[in-house]
Amino acid sequence: MQPILLVDVNTQNRSLETEILSAIKQAMYSTLILGPEMQQFERAWAYFLGSTYAFGVASGTDALFLSLKAAGIQEGDEVITVPNTFVATALAIQHCGAKPVFVDIDPSTYLIDIEQIEAAITPKTKAILPVHLYGQAVDMPKVLAIARKHRLAVIEDACQAHGAKFRGQSVGTFGLAGAFSFYPTKNLGCLGDGGMIVTNDHSLAEKIRLLRNYGESKKYHHIVSGFNSRLDTIQAAVLHTKLPYLLQWNQRRNEIAAIYQDKLTDLPKVILPKNDPAAESVFHLYVIRVPNRDGILSYLYENGVYAGIHYPTPLHRMDCFKGLGYRPGDFPHTEKCAESILSLPMYPELNLQQINHVVEIVKEGYHLYANRLRQ
Ligand SMILES: *Cc1c(COP(=O)(O)O)cnc(C)c1O
User: Fold this and answer.
1) pLDDT tens figures, 152-201
2) Distance, CA 220 to ligand 1 centroid (Å)?
3) How far does residue 86's CA lie from ligand 1's centre (Å)?
4) Is the pTM of this model over 0.90?
5) Is the minimum distance from the CB of 195 to ligand 1 under 6 angstroms?
6) What does DSSP say about strands 99-102 and 78-81: parallel, antiparallel, or unpaired?
């Protein structure tokens, strides 16, 4: 059996090679920056999610950063988010000069513990930045109710949740803005970096339009101090080619999750992802919790199953956020999860034989290591 990767983007891109290459070939003679292919993909993405506006930007990190900027987040402000996320969530807040304020996660969903948000609000709080981690949807109506009460903006980090829904509505479209990443391994990925901001707010949309393009209102008229952050026309053409497959890929991810669920359910000390009937996950990652995780993970590696950890170091314990003054132990659920979470291989092209192999090796690792002391 060939090693099984955590995610294998080559198989998917190879299966669409002819279509992708012809889209690239056409786009390479188009307007390469802010070209029609980018605008067409923006419209398609807005339609896919059910939002009014969509703006292609250079990355998911920039999508978060420019959304926060456009929402007026600046020096001295505080933005509430979670310590269990990819580093970029909080970097985007810091790049605005603002302070990330962490709220612990709900240990059953790994998403922001909504009950703890209000206690973190201070007079400096300007926004809440929930993260739809692993492809799961945060209960946005609850977050929006708190935000309305305290007059806070909500910017959604939907970089792992392309097409995830809460009560039928796509994540990214609940708050003032939603940020997406098209990094190659995301549920919809390009051949490099790319990102998108969606919003239903006209005035925010106009600010983002300026901010991503040097603050330019018309040729050589620069009315705000903007940035250079646009989705390349070529990447947009690739993404537009792949978009029609996204629903079936997400569906396949759900099928794979159901198979894992079914086959791993008899391991008493393993915690499987929770099913929230109001939320439709797109399983960007399939994350379980196991005892003696490091022992099991090394067993998986030795046997060619490349599982992962998302994420091993909570943000409040990273050097780049030292200045925030948090201490070990401040977010016990996040820290406890970080020691036991394990991401199993997850991508739509995984076949049944591979899934069965992953399950078999996980079970072997479990029986060998679960009852041992930590390695
Ligand atoms: C990928 C990701 C980002 C950043 O996206 P890039 O395109 O890599 O900049 C931000 N937040 C989360 C949760 C992500 O998974």
Assistant:
1) 999 999 999 999 999 999 999 999 999 999 999 999 999 999 999 999 99
2) 32
3) 6
4) yes
5) yes
6) parallel
